[in-house]
Structures are given as structure tokens and as C-alpha cells.
Design goal:
Elements (H helix, E strand, L loop, with lengths): L5 H12 L7 H7 L12 E8 L6 E7 L2 E6 L13 E5 L6 E6 L6 E7 L2 E6 L4 E6 L5 E6 L7 E3 L4 E3 L5 E5 L6 E6 L1 E2 L2 E2 L3 E7 L2 E6 L4 E6 L4 E7 L1 H7 L8 E7 L4 E6 L4 E7 L2
Antiparallel strand pairs: 1-22, 2-3, 3-4, 4-5, 6-7, 7-8, 8-9, 10-11, 11-12, 12-13, 14-15, 16-17, 17-18, 18-19, 20-21, 21-22
């Protein structure tokens, strides 16, 4: 996502690397302001590896009623491979689509979530939210969005959206009316680049765009209460390509299994998080 910002991000990394007082970006992310408490680290281990379609520029990932769903990005104005944006139901064991629809090439698809047998899919710069029936991916509604669309999840009652800032936006599902906004912070500092989301056991887990981290966020107050480092996995699969970042978190509530992947990654991982 956001290919046009890659140069800016790369330059930022270069400036950090050249600062003699900071040896790596992780220390900056972990410590925050001088004297501030470090964000607790949450260890991650790989349980199982599954194939993932390397043509899929993953923007959203969700598990629902035992099935894996994926939304991908790409548009006529910002092509990211052989495919434009899609919504798919994925065979977990093979990584292949069992059901799919293509978005019109004018739309760059973003995050997805599923609530009450209804699929919600964001678009990036088009300020549209598409709503589909789960069974046949038939589009039944289309909402306007005041911000860019990046990531989306739900807590069973509300839809929760990111726009690349440090804010979480809570919407009413039937009308997409904005209910409230929650800033995400750590030690009083506003977060940034919140991307793909997943709601797990009362907390929101968020990919941080262009960073090898997943934040664990308390949605009641916006505090970052944990940090998961996926650097090793990223380097293993696509660490040399700056655009193919970690992006995609799915939770199967029935089995309590967590899955992660990234843009055009060759693998999807079932992972175990330390409690």
C-alpha cells in the first residue's frame, strides 16, 4: 500500500541510521520519549506455514465461520502486479482462491472485515466502503468515507477503521455513521501509520505500515499495551522489497488461532503469541 510514500520512508530510515545516538529504529519505537517506559514486548512463534499467492498485494485478512478471506490492492492508477483489487475466499491449505470478485480498476481495495454475514471492504483514496453479502459476494451497499481507508475490523457491534494516522474510527455498521474517534498513544506520544487491524479478545492488533511491528492496543483508551516484532519473518520472506511489508492479521475465534502474512508474501503463518 502507499507506494508513493516509499521514498519518503526510505529517506527517514537513512536519517535514523546516520544518527550516532540511535543504532536502530527498533530502539526508537520501543523506548519513545526520554525517560518513558518501554512498550512490553510480546514474543511470537510460528506454529505452521501455509502457502500464499505472491500476486496478492494483501490489504485485509479475516477468518469467519472457519473460512479465510482476503482483500487485495491495486488500481489502474497504481498497479502493483498482474492483478488489480480483489475480494476472495481462500483455501487455507493451498493458498488459492475458492471464490473471488474483482473491483473496478478505478478502485484500490484496502482492509476487510466480516460482521453478521456481511463483508465490508475499504478503498484507499476513493473514499468508498463496499458492502457485500458473504455467501455470494454480491454488493448490496456503498458508503462514503471521509478519510482514506487503510484497515478495518469489528468488535461485534462497531466497525473500527484506520486511515494511516494514529486514530481509530468507530462506525455504526448499518449506516456507517461515525460514532467516535480514539487516538492511539504510547507514553503520551501519538502513534502513526496504523494499518491492517484485527480484534482479538478485547484488544486491537494493528500492523504498522513500513515497520516490522504489530501493536496491541486497548480500544477503551487507545493505549499501546504490547508490541510484536515480526522482523525475522519479514526478512525470511520478502525483506529486500520495501513495498512488500507485513500486512494481514486474522483470528479464528472458534479455534483461537492467529494468522499473519504480508503483501505478496509467499507464505501465511499460523502463530502463537505469548500471554
Amino acid at each position: 500500500m502507499k507506494l508513493i510514500l516509499t521514498l519518503f520512508t526510505t529517506l527517514s530510515f537513512f536519517l535514523i541510521a546516520c544518527n550516532g545516538n540511535e543504532t536502530n529504529s527498533e530502539s526508537t519505537q520501543t523506548e519513545g520519549p526520554a525517560g518513558a517506559a518501554a512498550i512490553p514486548s510480546i514474543s511470537l512463534s510460528i506454529v505452521k506455514t501455509f502457502p500464499h499467492d505472491t500476486s496478492s498485494f494483501t490489504q485485509g485478512l479475516a477468518f469467519y465461520n472457519g473460512e479465510l478471506y482476503e482483500g487485495t490492492g491495486g488500481a489502474a492508477y497504481d498497479a502493483v502486479g498482474s492483478k488489480f483489487s480483489r475480494l476472495m475466499k481462500i483455501d487455507l491449505e493451498t493458498g488459492k482462491a475458492k471464490q473471488a470478485i474483482d473491483l473496478d480498476p478505478q478502485y484500490f481495495g484496502e482492509g476487510i472485515t466480516i460482521l453478521n454475514d456481511t463483508v465490508y471492504q475499504l478503498t484507499w483514496r476513493e473514499h468508498k466502503v463496499f458492502v457485500y453479502t458473504l455467501a455470494d459476494f454480491k454488493k448490496i451497499k456503498e458508503f462514503d468515507l471521509n478519510t482514506e481507508g487503510w484497515g478495518i475490523t469489528n468488535n461485534g457491534k462497531e466497525l473500527i477503521v484506520t486511515d494511516g494516522s494514529g486514530n481509530l474510527y468507530f462506525y455504526e455498521p448499518q449506516t456507517f455513521q461515525l460514532l467516535h474517534t480514539q487516538s492511539v498513544t504510547s507514553n503520551g506520544e501519538l502513534a502513526y501509520n496504523l494499518n491492517e487491524l484485527e480484534y482479538i479478545d478485547g484488544f486491537i492488533y494493528a500492523n504498522v505500515w513500513q515497520q516490522p511491528y504489530i501493536w496491541k492496543i486497548d480500544p477503551s483508551n487507545g493505549l499501546i499495551v504490547g508490541k510484536i516484532d515480526v522482523s525475522d519473518i519479514w526478512q525470511r520472506v520478502n525483506g529486500q522489497e520495501p513495498n512488500y511489508v507485513p500486512n494481514g492479521i486474522a483470528y479464528d475465534a472458534a479455534t483461537r488461532k492467529i494468522y499473519i502474512t504480508g503483501k505478496k508474501w509467499p507464505a501465511l503463518y499460523e502463530v502463537q503469541l505469548a500471554q
